[in-house]
Every structure is written in structure tokens, then in C-alpha cells.
Specification:
The complex is a heterodimer.
Chain A: H1 2-24, E1 48-52, H2 59-75, E2 79-83, H3 90-97, E3 105-110, H4 112-119, E4 130-139, E5 142-146, H5 155-164, E6 170-173, H6 180-192, E7 197-200, H7 204-212, E8 218-221, H8 227-231, E9 235-240, E10 267-274, H9 279-293, H10 296-304, H11 316-337
Parallel strand pairs in A: 1-2, 1-3, 6-7, 6-8
Antiparallel strand pairs in A: 3-10, 4-10, 5-8, 5-9
Helix pairs in contact in A: 1-11, 2-9, 2-10, 4-11
Chain B: H1 2-15, H2 18-36, H3 42-49, H4 58-83, H5 92-103, H6 107-143, H7 146-160, H8 168-182, E1 185-186, E2 193-194, H9 208-230, H10 245-249, H11 252-267, H12 272-287, H13 299-323, H14 329-340, H15 347-352, H16 354-382, H17 390-409, H18 412-428, H19 435-458, H20 470-499
Antiparallel strand pairs in B: 1-2
Helix pairs in contact in B: 1-16, 2-3, 2-4, 4-5, 4-6, 4-13, 4-14, 4-16, 5-6, 5-13, 6-11, 6-13, 6-16, 7-19, 7-20, 8-19, 9-17, 9-18, 9-19, 11-12, 11-13, 12-13, 17-18
Classes of the chains: A alpha/beta, B mainly alpha.
């Protein structure tokens, strides 16, 4: 129970930050930043390199591309993306940490970097070993079923049906133990007492195909990633993993509506620079990436990915708070799950 | 007749628009060029072009990518045949027989077969795509889940064990070596690190492209260099003779079989053209009366591989367009092109953007046909590269292979893996082990492990669950029969022969 209280407090901080950000940044978060800024000593004199620890086609690859284009539109500085996929982001992180800390290379990363540090403190802490330039996407998860499903039609009937299957029901999820998705599912199964077999898919397409083709009974995913299926009416959300449902999903029960009292973990993606990079260059990079967040092209991209339903923007300090709270949350959960946390 | 009307409409829209024609031609030539240069691939070109598609219309942007896909898959066959360097992973099996044909002075014949079969496989696939996209896509994802894909992999491995090895044991040891390499890195189920020896870069696993480049390109340089030193080197004869119609007709069954295999692999999300090429090649070996001739320069090997990989291109568009499910990296990038134009691929595309879909279909059809013409010209010219003396060609090949290995993931560990594979391949070639078997073990090992784990989770860890899925059961039975038949061929048949 102590852990549960711990989780609730830490997660409350996250939710409060998200909601307050919502109010504070009704128009666009960085409208008050100057429209232009001279780089220190002519910096950058050449193109920047952005290391992306995932492939070009996934969520990280796409947000990296959208942000790189927005920064280039704003500053005229080209950004070369260097994808180094593998090891759940650890390969890209290692490659980035080996780069010269001169401000010419930046890193895209997701909340996996925080959970990796929570699990193994020898991994870089994104809030301390790196300087967050901006967090540009924060999103929540949902549980989906096929729209033409007739065995269950909503969250309550789904839970009832799953319980009747005695562990035979299936849900497609990501593969990594201790990931945001797996931890959230643990919260759900613990709270409902239902047994559901999670089928591990490490790539999105086969995961969505598994639900569309009837290979699994449900899917755990973030709404932006399955927007096609939602727009086409193929998938239907039955639970939103937020305390309060956003307007777009007003008819989908939130955690509160469904009677859960846990705080959900969120997915976030952002951009970083090495902590030893020259301070004046870091300042310019902070300006460029935070201002680029409000470029029309980037906002359009975020909107297309349902990334504007909750406030997605965090500046450097906001990102640090988000990462630090998340690491604490994961550590507590890992202890409870018996995963080695140090 | 609705399909024909739509196709004519799409063709007219494509060729009545000067910008559309330019984009089409750019895609055809760009795909072939980037496909043919080791070190870059059609994916490289697609990644470079992706941001620029925002300035094109949705029709032109998506058409450009689909055309690059068709011709890029073919382009890699040229270097596979001429220099033993597959331009892309889907051309790796083409090198198994294509390069030995070059060494025999039959490069023209091999490239000609690749041209014709790529065009044929791709065109047929495009026609089926036009006729039945939606029903096929829905059938594929309903009928083929992880248990069926695992069964397909098992069947593929059982067949692959008989490819290129001197003995039954060496065939299976080669496959097992590939499977062993495939388990390096994070496991696909729980994300547990395996055999990384504390090196973070190994967490990404050993990618099969550096291994292919090492086994085939680097090892080949070593072999030729050794011959040069020992004075037994002979420059390959430059043959530009195309395969005759009779030769191609003699392989009509192989072509049809590879079209079916390629198409089938293409429609499965996450499988795609690489597995299609390997499966096409494997089945050619399995059905052959003289399987021992494969790997020594058999035209059927080139035909089977190149027909299958291009047949997968049209098929891969089916789950993308009908369901929004990309089958591989390039089709995943196409999703990005759709999104740049405020569209999403999926069932609604046929309703909201039917014109776009038919322009893309028509473009893919004509891109596959254009392989015939441009490929013919290419064959007449590019083969002359073989006249370049070995001492100039070898460093160039090594350089391109090194770039190719690094370009996969931008990791220097891949370059190291390539050279290690080159040395290992150099020695394994002399000992009767099967390099294609190791490569296939590596490729299928990853897919197989993941789908096996998924299948067991879906079947609640009950082996008998496979029996309740007819397609999976049929494939597993076929795999065991193949295994038994190779055991019989290796031991009992041999004993009978020696007794006699």
C-alpha cells in the first residue's frame, strides 16, 4: 500500500503538470520566445546531426523528421538525421554519448531512456547526463477492440468476457518487460483481477494487423499510432488511460469512469544535447527547438498524431521534472514487480 | 470491367500530366540506380526524398515511392550477379547462382533472366493487386497469424538445410549457426540482453546485411586474391548473350511458383521481399531433380529469386492500401508520404482517393514493364564493368561493401561483423558448409523466434494448439516431411547405392 501511495503522489505530480501546462499554453507554448536569435560566434557553422535511436518509419523517426524540418524552416540550419536503432534505444544513446559535446549533435529519445535509467542506474539519466532541449510529444494509451466485435462492446463487457475466458483472452502489446505499456497493463490487470495473455509484438504493423485480422482480442496502443484505424472505423477504443478523458474521446471511459485509482504512465518524446556542450550553444539550441515546436508544420504534425489532446510541450526545466518524476515512478513500480532496480 | 476502366483512367491521368511523367521516370531510374549501388539502397533514396514529397501532390509523392519500390528491388540484382554484392537483401539469393554464372561467362544470361523475371513477377503482382486488393488483404491478416508465420519459417528452414551444403549434417549445422547468430542482442519477447558481452552495440544484434556482404563480397575478394597470388586467377568472361525464349519457357513452372511465393510473402505484414526471394530460391531447390546444381551457376536460381522478390512488391502494397499496414521499411515510409498530405492509407483511401490509388496502380504496372526496356539497355552496357582489372575492381568492391555495411544502421560494429564474416566465409567455403544456409538461419531465426513466442502465447503454451490451425499444421507437416526426405536422401538412399 505504501508503494501505491508513493505512485499516486508521484503520478499526481505528472498529471498536475500536464493539466497546468494545458491551461498555461492554450495558444502555443513558445509564442513569447523571440522570432530569431543569433548563434554564439556564428554557431552553428555547419549542419547539425540528430541521432535517432529508432528506425525512420516509427513514431520517433517521424517526430525527429518533423522537428528537424521545423528547426530548419525556422533557422535555415540543416539537420542530418542519423538513425541508430536497436537495444530499445540503448544503442543510439551509447552512440550519442560517444559524440563530441560541442553542440553540433543532438539526440531524440523517448521515455524508454528514463525507464532504462530507472532499471539500471549505470545507464545515462536523461535529466542529468543530458540537457533536455524540448519535450515535444506527450501522449496517453488506450485499449482497442475491433469495431465489429460482437463478443463485447465496451470496457465493462470486455472485462466480464475476459474473466470468463480464464486466462485465454489475448491482447497485443509491446514486448519489453518493464516498458510503459507493460507496466500500465499490470496496473489494469491488478486492479480488475482479470487474467489476459499479452502477445508480444515489437513492431506496430504486425501488432495492428493482429487485432484487425482477429488474431488477438484487444490491443494496447497510443491513439496517434492507430489513427488510421480509428478514422476508418476499424478499431474502437474502450478505455482511455487518463484520469479524465479528452474531448475527442469523451464517450470512451477514462480511468476514473472505469473505477481505477492508479495513475497511468505516459509516452513522451523529446530532444536532448550533451550536458557538457558549451552553455551559449545550448541556449541557442533550446531557443531553436522550443521555438520550432510552434512552427505551423510541427503543430500540424502533432495534431495529426493526436498529440494536442493533452499538452505536449515541456521546456528544459519542465522536461527535467517530467523525466525525474517518471524515473521515480518506474523505480517504485520495478521494485513492486521484482525487477532489479538500483 | 470496372478494373479495366479504372486502370485506363489511372494510365491516362499518369501520362497526360508532364510532372507525373517526370516523377515516374525519376522514380524508375532512381530506384534502379540506388538499388544497384551497394552501400545505398532504395531505402536510402526514399529517406532522402521523403521531405521533398511534401512539395509534390499526394498522387505524385505516393506514386514516386511505389515506382522506386518496384525498380529498386530489381536494381540490386545487377551487382549481385556481376560482383557477388547484393545491392539489397532481397537480391542476396540472386547472387547464389548469378555470380557463378558470371564466372562461367554467362553474366548476360543471368542479368537478362533477372530483367525479364523481375518485370514479369512485378507485373503479375501489380495486376493481382489491382484486381483484388481488399479481399486479399483481409484474408491474409485473418488466415496468417504468428502460428502460421512460424510454421512457414520452420518449413523454410527445413528446405534451406538442403541448399548448398555438401552433406546433411553440414547443411543443418549451417542453419543452426545462422540461428545462433540471430540470438545475439535483445530477445524479441522480454527484451533480455543475450550474448552482448557488455558491449552496448551488440544489443542491436548482428544484422544480416553485413553478414551477406562479408560472406559473399569480402570472402569473394579473398578467394580471388588468393588465386591471383597463386597464379590461378582467371578474369571472368564477358558474355552479353540474353537467355533465349526457350530457356525461359523451360523454367515456366519455376516462374509461376515464385510469383505465388513472392506474392504470398509480400502480403504478410513484416515479411516482405527478402523472405520472398529466399523462399522462392529454396522451393526451386526443393522441387529440382538436380538440387546439387544450385549454387554452381544455375539459371533457375536467378529466375526463382528475382521473380519472387518483385512479385512481393505489388503484394506489399495490398495490406498498406487496404488496411494501412506497411509490410516493410519502404512501405512504412509511404505511410509518411500519405500523412504529409493529410491522408492515411487504409480502407478509406479507396473511397476518398480512388483516383490516387489508380494512378499509383498504373504507375507500378508500367514501372515493372519499364524494367524490361531499361534493364535490356543496362545489360548491354553495365556488364562491361567486368573488363575492369581485378586489382582495381577489388578495392572498389571492398569500399562499397564497407559503406553498405555501415549504412544499414550507422554502426561501426556492422563493418567489423562484415569483415569477420568475410574471413569466416573464406574458410567455410572450402569446407562444404552452406553460406546461404547461415544467412537464411540468421534472417529466419529472428522472425521465427518472435513468431514462435507469439504463437505459444496465443496458444496458451500448448503445442497441440498448432493442430487446431490448419494452415500452420500443413506447413509444419510439410517441414517435417522435407526433413525426413532429406534424412532418407542423405543416409538410406546413399547406403542403398553403396550396397548395390
Amino acid at each position: 500500500m505504501k508503494i501505491k501511495n508513493h505512485l499516486a503522489t508521484a503520478a499526481l505530480t505528472l498529471t498536475a503538470m500536464t493539466l497546468s501546462a494545458n491551461v498555461a499554453y492554450a495558444a502555443c507554448a513558445t509564442d513569447d520566445l523571440p522570432d530569431s536569435m543569433d548563434g554564439p560566434g556564428g554557431f552553428p557553422e555547419r549542419a547539425l546531426t540528430m541521432i535517432v535511436p529508432y528506425g525512420p518509419a516509427g513514431g520517433s523517426g517521424q517526430v525527429a523528421q518533423a522537428m528537424a524540418e521545423a528547426v530548419t524552416e525556422l533557422t535555415g540550419v540543416a539537420i542530418n538525421r542519423d538513425h541508430k536503432p536497436g537495444g530499445s534505444g540503448s544503442v543510439g544513446m551509447t552512440a550519442y554519448m560517444a559524440q563530441p559535446a560541442d553542440g553540433y549533435s543532438v539526440l531524440e529519445h523517448i521515455d524508454d531512456a528514463a525507464s532504462a535509467h530507472a532499471l539500471d542506474s549505470s545507464q545515462p539519466n536523461p535529466a542529468e547526463d543530458l540537457i533536455p532541449l524540448v519535450t515535444s510529444q506527450i501522449t496517453f494509451s488506450q485499449i482497442y477492440i475491433r469495431a465489429n466485435e460482437d463478443r463485447f462492446t465496451d470496457w465493462d463487457s470486455f472485462v466480464e468476457w475476459v474473466k470468463a475466458q480464464d486466462g485465454k483472452a489475448t491482447i497485443a502489446n509491446v514486448s519489453k518487460e518493464g516498458s510503459m505499456e507493460r507496466v500500465n497493463m499490470k496496473f489494469i490487470t491488478d486492479a480488475t483481477g482479470m487474467k489476459i495473455q499479452q502477445i508480444s509484438f515489437d513492431k506496430g504493423s504486425p501488432r495492428y494487423g493482429a487485432l484487425a485480422g482477429g488474431q488477438v482480442d484487444a490491443l494496447f496502443e497510443q491513439p496517434g499510432d492507430v489513427r488510421t484505424f480509428l478514422d476508418a472505423g476499424t478499431f474502437k477504443p474502450i478505455l482511455t488511460l487518463l484520469k479524465e478523458a479528452p474531448d475527442v474521446f469523451a464517450d470512451v471511459p477514462s480511468l476514473t469512469d472505469a473505477g481505477f485509482d492508479f495513475e497511468p504512465l505516459l509516452r513522451f518524446r523529446g530532444f536532448y544535447v550533451h550536458k557538457d556542450a558549451p552553455e551559449d550553444r545550448v541556449k541557442w539550441l533550446q531557443w531553436a527547438f522550443q521555438k520550432a515546436y510552434c512552427q505551423e508544420s510541427y503543430q500540424k504534425y502533432n495534431e495529426s498524431k493526436f498529440m494536442t489532446l493533452i499538452e505536449s510541450f515541456r521546456d528544459t526545466e519542465g522536461s527535467r521534472d517530467l523525466i525525474t518524476s517518471t524515473i521515480k515512478l518506474y523505480r517504485d513500480v520495478y521494485k513492486e514487480m521484482g525487477l532489479s532496480a538500483n | 470491367m470496372n478494373v479495366i476502366d479504372n486502370f485506363i483512367g489511372g494510365t491516362f491521368a499518369l501520362f497526360s500530366d508532364p510532372v507525373g511523367i517526370l516523377v515516374f521516370l525519376g522514380g524508375v531510374l532512381g530506384g534502379m540506380l540506388f538499388g544497384a549501388i551497394p552501400g545505398v539502397s532504395m531505402l536510402t533514396l526514399a529517406a532522402i526524398l521523403l521531405p521533398f514529397t511534401a512539395h509534390l501532390s499526394a498522387e505524385h509523392g505516393i506514386m514516386l515511392f511505389s515506382v522506386i519500390y518496384c525498380t529498386g528491388v530489381y536494381g540490386g540484382a545487377i551487382t549481385a550477379i556481376l560482383f557477388n554484392i547484393p545491392g539489397a537483401p532481397e537480391n542476396a539469393p540472386t547472387a547464389f547462382d548469378g555470380y557463378p554464372m558470371t564466372q562461367k561467362g554467362q553474366a548476360g544470361k543471368a542479368v537478362g533472366a533477372a530483367v525479364m523475371c523481375s518485370a514479369l513477377g512485378g507485373t503479375v503482382s501489380a495486376i493481382v493487386m489491382m484486381v483484388a486488393t481488399a479481399p486479399i488483404a483481409n484474408w491474409a491478416i485473418s488466415a496468417f497469424g504468428p502460428p502460421e508465420i512460424f510454421a512457414l519459417v520452420f518449413f523454410g528452414l527445413a528446405v534451406a538445410a538442403s541448399v548448398g551444403a555438401k552433406t546433411f549434417w553440414k547443411g543443418w549445422l549451417s542453419i543452426l549457426a545462422g540461428l545462433l547468430i540471430a540470438i545475439v542482442g535483445l530477445d524479441p519477447v522480454g527484451g533480455i540482453a543475450r550474448y552482448d558481452f557488455g558491449m552496448p552495440y551488440l544489443l542491436a544484434g548482428i544484422h544480416f546485411i553485413p553478414v551477406i556482404l562479408g560472406f559473399f563480397a569480402v570472402a569473394e575478394i579473398f578467394v580471388q586474391a588468393e588465386k591471383k597470388v597463386t597464379g590461378s586467377f582467371k578474369a571472368p568472361k564477358v558474355g552479353v548473350a540474353f537467355p533465349s525464349l526457350g530457356e525461359l519457357l523451360a523454367h515456366k513452372i519455376a516462374v509461376v511458383r515464385s510469383i505465388i511465393i513472392g506474392f504470398f510473402c509480400g502480403i504478410l505484414p513484416g515479411i516482405g521481399a527478402t523472405l520472398a526471394a529466399f523462399m522462392g530460391y529454396n522451393e526451386a531447390v526443393r522441387w529440382s531433380k538436380k538440387p546439387e546444381e544450385f549454387g554452381t551457376g544455375k539459371l533457375e536460381g536467378v529466375i526463382s529469386s528475382e521473380t519472387a522478390n518483385n512479385a512481393a512488391t505489388g503484394a506489399a502494397m495490398i495490406p498498406l492500401l487496404a488496411l494501412g499496414l506497411p509490410g516493410g521499411a519502404l512501405t512504412a515510409m509511404m505511410v509518411g508520404v500519405f500523412q504529409m498530405h493529410d491522408m492515411e492509407p487504409g480502407p478509406l483511401v479507396f473511397l476518398t482517393s480512388a483516383d490516387l490509388v489508380w494512378v499509383v496502380f498504373a504507375a507500378m504496372f508500367f514501372a515493372n514493364l519499364s524494367i524490361l526496356l531499361i534493364g535490356y539497355l543496362e545489360t548491354r552496357t553495365i556488364i562491361n564493368l567486368l573488363k575492369v582489372p581485378f586489382q582495381f575492381l577489388a578495392p572498389l568492391i571492398l569500399m562499397l561493401a564497407t559503406i553498405g555495411a555501415y549504412a544499414v544502421r550507422g554502426l561501426s560494429v556492422d563493418v567489423v561483423a562484415m569483415f569477420v564474416a568475410g574471413v569466416v566465409g573464406f574458410f567455410l567455403r572450402r569446407s562444404g558448409y552452406s553460406l546461404p544456409g547461415i544467412v537464411l538461419g540468421l534472417i529466419l531465426g529472428r522472425i521465427g523466434e518472435q513468431t514462435f513466442a507469439q504463437a505459444m502465447q496465443m496458444l496458451h503454451f500448448e503445442w497441440t494448439g498448432f493442430a487446431g490451425r490448419p494452415i500452420a499444421l500443413a506447413l509444419i507437416v510439410a517441414g517435417f516431411l522435407t526433413l525426413l526426405s532429406s534424412i532418407y536422401g542423405a543416409f538410406f538412399k546413399k547406403r542403398k547405392t553403396s550396397d548395390a
